[in-house]
């Protein structure tokens, strides 16, 4: 049996298209570090079902690998790190908040 890699639930906000992350209190945040870090596979599947039921709020929900960090979950893969800073053609918003990806 393989060990479960911690996950966060991520999706895109339906209207704005922003990458968002499901928090433990069921709200969606644009900040990856606020996401609920899920360390149990069954719980991850339940949270994903919860996210997919919110069709009027988000689209394309999926589980993304993450790891614990000093300020909350951190993305593991480049694609997820890139999604945390938003579209690369905007010099404002998430890009202004971070020095690099």
TrEMBL record:
Q: Name one Pfam family in it.
A: DUF2849
Domain of life according to the entry: Bacteria
Q: Which InterPro entries match?
A: DUF2849 (IPR021270)
Q: What is this protein called?
A: DUF2849 domain-containing protein
Q: Which organism is it from?
A: Aliigemmobacter aestuarii
């Amino acid at each position: 049996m393989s060990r479960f890699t911690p996950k966060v639930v991520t999706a895109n906000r339906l209207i704005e298209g922003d990458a968002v992350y499901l928090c433990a209190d069921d709200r969606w945040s644009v900040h990856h570090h606020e996401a609920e870090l899920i360390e149990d596979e069954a719980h991850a599947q339940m949270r994903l079902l919860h996210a997919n039921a919110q069709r009027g709020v988000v689209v394309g929900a999926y589980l993304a690998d993450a790891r614990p960090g000093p300020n909350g979950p951190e993305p593991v893969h480049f694609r997820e790190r890139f999604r945390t800073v938003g579209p690369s053609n905007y010099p404002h918003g998430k890009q202004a908040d971070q020095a690099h990806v």
